[in-house]
Amino acid sequence: MSSDITLSSGVRQNLLSLQNTASLMAQTQNRLATGKKVNSALDNPLNFFTSQSLSSRAHDLSGLLDSMGSAIQTVQAASNGITAMTALVKQLQATVSSARGDTTPAAIAPGSLTAGTNTSALGGKLTFNLGGGTSVSLDTYNHVNATVSTVTAASGTYTTDLSANGFSINDGTTNTAITFAAGDLTLAAKITKINSQLATAGNNVHAQDDGNGNLQLVNSTGNTITVTEGAGTTAATLGFGAGNTTSTDGSAAVNTAFTVDELVSAINSNSILSGKVSASKDATTGALKLSNLTNTNFTVTGTNGTNVTGLSTDTSTLSGGTGASLSSVRQSLLNQFNSLVSQIDKTALDSGYNGINLLNGDKLHVQFNETNTSSIDVQAIDGSGNAFAINSTNLGINAQTTSNFASNTTLDSLASTLTTALTTLRSQASALGSQLSVVQTRQDFTKNMINTLQTGSDNLVLADTNEEGANMLALQTRQSLSTTALSLASQANQNVLRLFG
User: Fold this and answer.
1) Predicted local distance difference test score (pLDDT) of residue 85
2) Beta partners for residue 387, in sequence order
3) d(CA 201, CA 204)
4) Domain at 66-104+327-452: CATH code
5) In terms of Cα–Cα distance, which of 297, 331, 293 is closest to 315?
6) Which residue has the higher pLDDT, 113 or 317?
7) What is d(CA 15, CA 6) in angstroms, rounded to the nearest whole number?
8) What is the distance of C-alpha 237 from the center of its chain?
9) Helix, strand or coil, per DSSP, at residue 144
10) Residues 180, 194: Cα–Cα separation, whole Å
């Protein structure tokens, strides 16, 4: 700073010292007032911008920390819902167990049908149409084969082109014309061609090599095989001779009608019919009696209501059973059961948090870092990885009817369903607990990371108040000394005045 006033060297030197001290005091006072040694990029560009970057990341993570806390509450809300639903399912189990223990139920009075005695000795089936595309067909006869029948060609020629003419093979039921192609010039080729045409026609005969290079025909049903020559000499060339050749070492299949007792055993041992249809033998007439254990009508094909014919053209109706009123105990338990089932769904609907309900199959996305390169999707899923809503329907728990609680068989099945539902709930609770643990771990990690970032940021810009206080005291002392020195320098100039005294 220039001036027209002339100062002595001593005064000017002391003045500069006072100015420097005042500048340092202003800087120190600013640091003490703000608590920072770097208040702008002018103070220290590197520290200032590095500190800003660290603080910005800490601020971003702080925002994510809030969302993690909200996510934890969402998962805990779903977990609370599963806990409540588990308790409800256990109550349902107790209800079913109590109903099963009631020994005075008024069970369903089953519908019945007299199918009659079995007359289907020539074969046939008794078919129960259970509805919904489910049917069960049972044979009404026993098929007995005594011995297979065979006929073997002798000294046949297989390298000859036999495509111009053919021959026929009859298995006792089906007559099949056999033709060859021009290229079928080996025994193996001719066997392949014969079997292909027999299979297409549904013929029971099978062609094979007898082990000695001869063509052999085998009928597994035991019926006589007849080889018939057509125009030409195909059969004779193969070794069957001219005219008709028949097997002689087999016996025809025998079909024997099942007895009523055998039909009863077959029906009652069928797993699909179990709990739906039962069979018995009328002690007076010896006829087959069928009972419908459900409330739904079934059609039975193969009976005309007088005899079991096995014919698809004969159909009778097996009426559904009628349910009497339940005992007071089971009726009360039925009401409790259905009320509890409705509470399962209500509990599931009330298990949401902040608009997200994990029990409804919703997906919760939790972001762990500011670039969204680290995250987790929390969602209830089934065994195939698809979204899974945890409710009574998907747990297989439905409201029950009077007929359901009247049947011990149905109650046993219901108890098994509830056990499976408990397993599902526990599996879903475990999966959510695992995901909750991940979010909680990342929440703790983020808290520590924010603290680390903020501490690092502060270390770059914060002032040491103890040091700055000491600096201020030293500067004040220096200022006082500089003022004294300036006064002394001024006195030296004032001595000139004495010359004029």
Assistant:
1) 93
2) 381
3) 9
4) 1.20.1330.10
5) 297
6) 317
7) 13
8) 64
9) strand
10) 8
Q: What is the pLDDT of residues 115-132, one digit of tens each?
A: 767 776 566 788 889 887
Highest mean pLDDT among 73-87, 308-322, 443-457: 73-87
Mean pLDDT of the 383-394 span: 88
Label each residue of 398-458 as H, E or C: CCCCHHHHHCHHHHHHHHHHHHHHHHHHHHHHHHHHHHHHHHHHHHHHHHHHHHHHHHHHH
Cβ pair 303, 118 in contact under 8 A = no
* pLDDT the model gives residue 344: 92
Q: What integer pLDDT is reported at residue 3 of this predicted model?
A: 60
* E strand spans, 154-269: 167-170, 175-178, 205-209, 215-219, 226-229, 244-246, 254-257
In the DSSP assignment, the letter for residue 370 is: T
Helix (H) or strand (E) segment spanning residue 128: strand 125-131
Right CATH for 146-252 from 3.30.70, 2.60.40, 3.30.420, 3.90.660? 2.60.40
Mean pLDDT of 458-463: 66
Token representation of residue 313: 């053209």
